[in-house]
Amino acid sequence: MRKFLGFLFLLALGACFFLPQVQTELPKILKQSQLTVAQAAKNVGVQLPLVGRQEAASATPVESIVRPQTLKKTYYYRFSADVPVKVQQVFERAIAVYNETGIVDLVAGQATAEQNEITIFVYQKTMTAKQVNYLELGKGGPEIQQLTGLQGYTANHARAGLNVKYGQSIKESVAIHELGHALGLDHSSNRRSVMYPIDQGLTQLSAGDLKALKYLY
Length: 217
Description:
Elements: H1 2-32, H2 37-43, H3 50-58, E1 74-79, H4 85-99, E2 105-108, E3 116-123, E4 138-141, E5 144-147, E6 153-163, H5 172-183, H6 207-216
Parallel strand pairs: 1-2, 1-3, 3-6
Antiparallel strand pairs: 4-6, 5-6
Helix pairs in contact: 1-2, 4-5
């Protein structure tokens, strides 16, 4: 009986020591980094169930220069003068995919310096013989403009473009990928993500893509 009571005492003492540590350290890690919940828990020695580890593996990273909750959800987009009608149509469909989420709102128009904007462009880049196994279909990314002070603001003047040297770049899946970069999403290791670095022909955002967007906006 004494051994059993002693065991209960040690168990209670361990719980008093461990739980406060988790309660204080876990929120601190989540605030100071872009780790998923599963990764943060791992840092303080908390073992999550398998589903938590799977979620961490499928998470979509975000561009390091885009800070969460600092940008407004509305973006104004415009096409450069040399963008063909076919490319415009592809991007319009890709824009609709993002607007359907309700997380961001992409509107045709000209932005002011304080507003978010996406410039959509085309370019031609021929891959060399050494790059035969790598075909650049497009490029895009955020460009953060920040002004401090009473009239300060933070805006993203982003760009998204397709390499029209190759016909296979003019696809909705490629346009969605480049718009994702413009909005702040980075490459994902998950093949089900539109942000996977090799085009998979996907035209729907994965759960990890949606969580990353919600995290940013």
